Amino acid sequence: MRAYGKPTVVSGGLTELVVLWGGIPLLGGALGGLLVAGAGWVAGLPWAPAQGLFRAVDGLPDQYAIPGGVGVGVLVGLVIAVIGTNERVAVTVSGTEVQVREGSSERVISRRDTRVVFLDGKNLVLLDADDAELVRQPNDLPAKRLAEAFREHGWPWAEADPHGEAYRLWVPDLPGLPAGADALLRARREALERDRNDEVRELRKELSRYGVVVRDAGKRQHVRLTRRAALPD
């Protein structure tokens, strides 16, 4: 244990950046060139979409069409790289706090406010003394490295969600929830179905004020209550 040693950073590192800014644009360029080169074949498939577009591309001179296809593929790859960079997650763990960074946003959570840390699927979760979520951060970081980082600095790491059995599948008018929570869950269900991710996150935060923790399984919501939830009479 090194509770007061050098902080440990868990991230995709340089390899992730090389893949984002080198590998993906190169792959995009190769696919773009191949797609243009095979435009005539695609246009001849009776089930292929946008056949008119492929016929038009097939009619262009190769000295212009193939470089153009490669350029468009590289451009698409660069757009994906920008999006991927903005969504990169890095977790920095010390003996006193953890910094969770996603793109340009960052949250800092104190060790003294944290009761337990664990991974719920691809989500890093920190709970407070009332069993409410301090953080639920989606990530693709190596689970083993995350666990080692927290353990090395003396954090209470758990191998699974200690409240996993407390979740119930939410259905409209589910009994036992705080007043007002059902309406928020209905709104959140609609946001999930329409892939309005920002709204989904905001409604999760709002539900936490009612003492309701939400865990998603696809488009379905599972809920549990924290110790400070205001239960109906």
Walk me through this protein's architecture.
The chain has 233 residues and is an alpha+beta fold. 42% of the residues lie in helices and 21% in strands. The strands form three sheets. The chain has a four-stranded antiparallel sheet, with helices on one face. Helix 1 (13-37) packs antiparallel against helix 4 (62-86) and helix 6 packs antiparallel against helix 7. The longest helix is centred in the N-terminal third of the chain and has 25 residues, at 13-37. It is flat, with a radius of gyration of 24 Å. The protein starts with 7 loop residues before the first strand and ends in an 8-residue tail after the last strand.
Averaged pLDDT, please?
Answer: 88
Q: What overall form do the CA principal axes indicate?
A: flat
> Which range does the strand content fall in?
15-25%
Q: Between the first and last Cα atoms, what is the distance in angstroms? A: 47 Å
State the helical fraction.
40-55%
Topology of helices and strands:
Layout: E1 8-10, H1 13-37, H2 39-43, H3 51-58, H4 62-86, E2 89-93, E3 97-102, E4 105-110, E5 116-120, E6 123-127, E7 133-138, H5 143-152, E8 168-169, H6 181-193, H7 197-209, E9 212-217, E10 220-225
Antiparallel strand pairs: 1-2, 2-3, 3-4, 5-6, 6-7, 8-10, 9-10
Helix pairs in contact: 1-4, 6-7
